[in-house]
# Entry
Amino acid sequence: MKNLKSVVMIALIMSVTNVISAQHDHSKMNMKQDNHSMMNHDKSMVKLNDKNLTKAYMHYTIINNALVEANAEKAQKASKMLFGILKKYGKAPDAEKAALEMASKSNIMDQRIVFSELTTAFEPLLKHNIVEGEIFKTFCPMANANKGGYWLSNEKAIKNPYMGQKMLKCGSVKETIK
# Structure
């Protein structure tokens, strides 16, 4: 009986010690970089007058960056998340529809076509709702089989989501939304 109490006491001390020393150290965790990069906040991130709208714009920028990188899987995941946030926001049926359609696409070229529709539906949500930062409305005349396409960005530097690395800097800022 005395030995059983000693074993239980030692086990209890060891488990408490492990809990205290295991303070969620990310350096020892085997996590994919992509999981953290989807939520990276840029110092130039825009804040809007509604937290769901701010989250929605953040996910829009994740989609934009995924298209620049030609990462269809990341664009699809972010589109699903955007759809959920827009549904919660409840005031953006056109953007919601475009996000849902984009989430159903796994091909990068199909996603880029729908991204143009998403941008068109998303832009009115941003105007007159920015409380911090600015958004650059950028245009590429060669996007969508030379029909052209707009995208929204936190920075003036051109990173074309329609052409990716092939023509990364094709486009120009057409408007600054404040």
